[in-house]
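Shift notes (night). Ran Cache domain-containing protein while the centrifuge was going.
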Amino acid sequence: MKLLRKHAWLGWWWLLCVAALHAAPADDGAPARALLEKALAYYQEQGDKAFAAFSRQGEFVDQDRYVFVVDTQGVMLASGGPSSALIGRDVSAVLGADLRKAFQDALHTPQGSGIQQAEYRWQNWADGKIERKHVYFQRVGERILAVGYYQPRASADQARALLERSAEALASDRAATLAAINDLQGGFIEDDLYVFVVDLDTRRYLAHGTNLRLLDTDFAKVRDPEGKPVGEPMLALMARQEQGEYQYRWKNPVTGKVEDKHAYLRKVGRLLVAVGYYSP
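Came back to this:
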């Protein structure tokens, strides 16, 4: 339990320890930004009396989005989420030196700068997975009000990067990499991205990042949820070239929905290694 709480401290404060600020897609971030704007308006009216409303389940909690407040000394003042257990505590002491500096930089954001944004990666309390999270925050006097939301859908660039890393690892140490992929916690899962590996000689799965039941099954027989061939076309493609791309329909492990998937394929010796990203 103590370890879980320590991780919670790091997680909720990490969002204020990110040096780089990023723009978020308006459609995805609109509810979080709107909740923050609502909280800012309420705080302007109520001052610190608003903390009670921010810290209970009510109008300032929207699904997995909620308001939290810290002061410029690093003390949690209010939270409508799991970090409510930290109210009244200074958690800056649990941060490493580099993170502590970034933390202080964020806390000293000049007033009048408007709403700021940052991204980080942390465990989603709803599903237990490490996912990207985007936060909107604004300093008001000695307070910083913030709202964050998770971004489980990975990008094409992330998919290509994971494929590159996986291919290099397989070329360096095949056995260890296959074991890490099948471990499901071995660093080859990012958001809704995962790796799968097929033996091009036997045409059977050697590794799969989300479904171990597929191991040693015939990849050539794999079909999408509508019955269209998936495995055979990929094998045919890789029989002609060293790398390629293939689009099909598949279940997204994060959303649980069948979505369009764009897979990047590459040969590593007699192995086919693939990573694909989803689009709704």
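The chain has seven helices and twelve strands. Confidence is low (pLDDT under 50) at residues 1-27.
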